[in-house]
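User: Predict the full complex structure for these chains.
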Amino acid sequence: MEYEIVVGMEIHAELLTNTKIFCSCPTKFGDPENTHTCPICLGMPGVLPVLNRDVVRYAVRAGLALNCKIANFSKMDRKNYFYPDLPKAYQTSQFDRPLCLGGTVDINVNGQTKPIGITRIHIEEDAGKLLHESTDGTLVDVNRCGVPLIEIVSEPDIRGPEEARIFAEKIRNTLEYTGVSDCKMEEGSIRFDVNVSVREKGTEKLGTRTEMKNLNSFRALERAIKYESKRQIIELKKGHPIIQETRKWDDVKGISSAMRSKEDAQDYRYFPEPDLVPITITDEEIKKAKSELPELPEAKKARYMAEYDLPEYDADLITSSKEMAQFFEETVKISNHPKQIANWLMVDIPAHLKEKELSISTIPFVPSDLAELIDLIQNGMISGKIAKFVMEKMFTEDGSPKEIVERNNWAQMQDEGELQTIIEKIVEDNPKSVSDISSGNKKAYGFLTGQVMKATKGKANPQLANKIIREVVAKKIN
Amino acid sequence: MSISNEEVTYVSKLARLRFNEEETKKMAKELGSVLDYVATLNEVDTSNIEPTEHILQVSNVFRDDVVGTPLSNQVALANAPDQENGCFKVPRVLD
Amino acid sequence: MNINRLTIHETKEALSKGEFSSEELVASYADRIEKVDPKVDAFLLKCLDDAKEHAKKIDSEGKTESSILSGIPYALKDNICTKDIKTTAASKMLYNFVPPYSADVYERLQNLDSIMLGKVNMDEFAMGSSTENSAFKTTKNPWDLSTVPGGSSGGSAVAVAADMAAYALGSDTGGSIRQPASLCGVVGLKPTYGLVSRYGLIAFASSLDQIGTFTKDVEDAAIVLNAIAGHDAKDSTSLNISKKDYTVNLKRGAKGLKVGILKNFNTEGVQEEVKTAMDESIAAFKDAGAEIVEVDFRYFKQALAAYYIVACAEASSNLARYDGVRYGYRAKEYTDYIDMYYKTRSEGFGSEVKRRIMLGTYALSSGYYDAYYKKGMQVRTVIINEYNKIFEQCDVLMTPTSATTAFKIGEKVDDPLQMYMSDTFTVPINIAGIPAVSIPTKLDQKGLPIGIQIVGPALGEEKILQAAWALEQSFNFRKNQPSL
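Assistant: Here is the predicted structure of the three-chain assembly.
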């Protein structure tokens, strides 16, 4: 019997606002515990929330980027449950009137385009953090309480682990591109929960699903779905029913396990938040927000292929991160050699970044430096080989590429007379090569060029060297 | 309308309140009599009536995204029944 | 001259003339509190030393004239947060809570240099109609110490009625200002929902709660309303409208006013003398040139039913934050964190609060939302429409405030439903979010005050105060005084 894996996703992304959703506390990550709190996010008695304007702006932007319909009327609701990381004992969220509804995202799977439905996007507040570092208890940090989130809920349109990863990456890219979230998985500013079920191929009815949490990387997400679907299939084959539960992924052990089920039934007692008024958005405002959307990855990719003549593979890779695309565009503005820039961005730069544990956003040089490097090659100042050394130094040394070249005395020998002398001597010392060439073995040119490079420590301009070698050898043969 | 002891127990769990057997019975009786009274709501035909979620006909009340001054850690924790390392402290929570 | 008997405007005049200083005024109130409060138990926290310091400062800086409330002493209901001053909502749950912030109303009064004498008693979390639900003490009605002062703002009503404060602030969710004002013989005003900021008012039912005033006469009510009304950016439900001076048209009289009375109001359970007071009020309005119009209001029972559902549902959520984690009471012994929640909440809340949390939780729980909460909100719409119709026919509506005068302490504690019924005339007003004022008219045979309620359309404060002032002139209730 063949099984089909069905996946739906719930994605929480922290919005890039300066302040929390209902109070003016900063949202900054990584500061000491309980230093970003106020009576409002501490849930003290009698205080009231006021909605951050930019939360709505960002959420609308995310909705438009994911092709959702923006609701003209939406409202906030309370979701009631007790937990030590939830000061008010309710999460202010949206229940039946979310901000965005019914979107769709196209993903590319094996060269095919596949639409994945977005059920809804709503705004809500994040909870705090529980720290388990105390010997005889649990500590509560309220800093994250009230950090604004959007929750994106997908339809169960995803089939299998790879599609899930591609979809998740696509969502991450889109949110990053639109400036809605910084999407740092490692800091938890974007969190993917997946609902996994399996069913016999060809059947319609969805199987019982489990929800998987603690997926801290795209790799973990893909592995977790692989593991969980396999586990479910094994259970079914044994004739065991699937239990609807929440499971926690352990990426080190590569297994998932059921989370301790909460003592109570889930009965959140949603009701309209009386302390906040509804949100209304006119069609004109939606239209305006749409016109202000930045260029999204799809459009950018198409433009790179058309405008810069980049191969699809290159365009796809460069646009896969907003920062990479930005670096590319700024470089190409200064040095109009898109393919070369793309090559640097796809091969050497990522390798150095990886080695130095940096990212494109923390790269130690600017686009104009890369442009300068490429121009140095184009002008024949340095060879492609030397350029790789220059690049290496650009990660470790100060100064522009030109300065690095000068400092290391790497500039190509441009003086024709000096090169002529060196070549004449080499030709003199290698009569066998000359005779080889004269008898039709052109490969010997290569050997002579190698000798020239060796003698000049790689600084000879190869084109110039070749030209002179041919002239000198021709004279000799004649 | 009568409310069973089981219903009282279910609701008390949602509310994180605990009642002994006697209190549960008493609560069931009291809630039952209030709900009998509440049944008078059904005398009003509301089939085409929108619920009033907000008395005010106001929407879009926002604040600007400008950072204010948070409380110091010490003030934030000043009322805490228990604390450690600048955090509120509770008995161990297992997840 | 008995300084403590004076109204705000009388006190201000005397202060201006130099008949006494702020310091002397506060000292006089402090003496009165020390003498009388042990009998009536209105204060939970006295801030008399700070009050005296504040008065001295006002005198020395010559600020007695800086605002109409400068130097005037008042009492605050203990569910209104005061920075660095303990605020308990009369609950064991908050027995030691010191807020690091202030309610908007308190800030406004501080800025006007009015002098806070202390925090006064109430039903726990404002849930009750007798102030018997306080976790700390039972406040007595100064007109008869064996009776309740009403509630939930019983302490505020008593502070003013017993001349322990020139005025007081309270909160009104279903009658919690007007009913105790009625039972204690003072003026109690509940403004339109949204007119006064709720920021810093410990929430009972967010869509119904409103802060209002207790004063010795109607003019004072207008004066204090001027001080506390106004937009507050910290409260999303605060109305952003231009400020009004409620004293300007106050004394226009009732001539030409259309005063509505209920044609079908259910007289069952209404005390005979309350009916008589209603009749005399009608006569007084007619004498003053008002037109009496009979109107219909059909939904007293349903309003009360809707009120208990909506208020308790919101309360069940608003009071969920009291968990012993960040502030307030925490149980001493527990087995784990969940047990800590259960014990903290079961020990920290009183029985009425628990009853309402249970009712509200039930009404919101899975499967019951539509039948209770949604239905309650729909009935709310019906009631609002009913009032809109009424105010097409009249300027203000007059009803009793409470069906009876003050009842005995302990009389209704075992019958929650009976206790709830005592809010019949006040609750529909909160359901509709409209303003109402209760004014004292006369004493019944037992010597207990009878209050009359004047109701207006949304933002109709000017009109109801104008009508109430006219009625006040014909009764001259202030000739009466409780003997303490």
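Chain C touches chain A through 44 residues (CB under 8 Å).
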